Amino acid sequence: MTSPEPLLQVRDLRVQVGERTVLHSVSLDVNAGSLVVLMGANGSGKSTLGLALAGHPAYQVLGGQALLAGQDLLALPAHERARAGLFLSFQSPPDVPGVKNNLFIRTALNAQRESRGQPPLDAFDFLTSAKQAAKALGLPEAMLGRPVNEGFSGGERKRNELLQLALLQPRLALLDEIDSGMDVDGVRAVVEQVRRQRAQGTAFIVVSHYLQMIEQLEPDAVLRLDQGCIAETGDLGLARHIAETGFASRTAPAGA
Ligand SMILES: Nc1ncnc2c1ncn2[C@@H]1O[C@H](COP(=O)(O)OP(=O)(O)OP(=O)(O)O)[C@@H](O)[C@H]1O
Ligand SMILES: [Mg+2]
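^ thats the input. predicted complex w/ magnesium ion below
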């Protein structure tokens, strides 16, 4: 039996930010329904990988390839990458003043539905499912009527990212430190939602420094990013070892 083609295939990706090449050569595969944890010291380039894949204009791709379900992501503008099924939950979700949260998410969802050949959801049907999803995430309903993230607490911003994830149903979700700033119920909600969506075939790349959540997520692989490359690939044992010994002891000194 031949194994299925990975949902995401990243090959030799090289990314520059400002004057600096942050990713030198990143290659990784993620299968549908699987979960990869990405670890790495602060500043090693984890967020850079997510933002470059999502198409943030400040992250200049110098070379390499990224295919999502066979589609050349890097050739697409950011909104087309989202329509192809890519979702990025920001490490620091920005405010979008003047844009109501429910309208923002419904517009994004209907763009996705259009690309899947589904009819748009009207305001009533959308609100019904948005309220249900918000309740499941412990996010007050009033947050739906407020401008995106404006005045939201740190944890509320992260829950709002989870709300988008729940409603958009992407093929591949990259969660960049979704647990940071979340209380214990929030982290539990992350684990439950990831489990549910993974069972439906969504693939995940989860960036986290938090071993307890990583263990609960039952990853298929744990990767360590260092010096712009995937320096180590392992399983939960690698995450546990990093938690015990830190990153500094694993990093080869420059020039070694
Ligand atoms: N817009 C930018 N201009 C200049 N340098 C940047 C920019 N964005 C990121 N960098 C630099 O790129 C490097 C990688 O940053 P990145 O945010 O990807 O790290 P990270 O692995 O996500 O770290 P953390 O664990 O702290 O979130 C850092 O040295 C950072 O200072
Ligand atoms: Mg980061």
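The CA atoms of residues 106 and 122 lie 9 Å apart.
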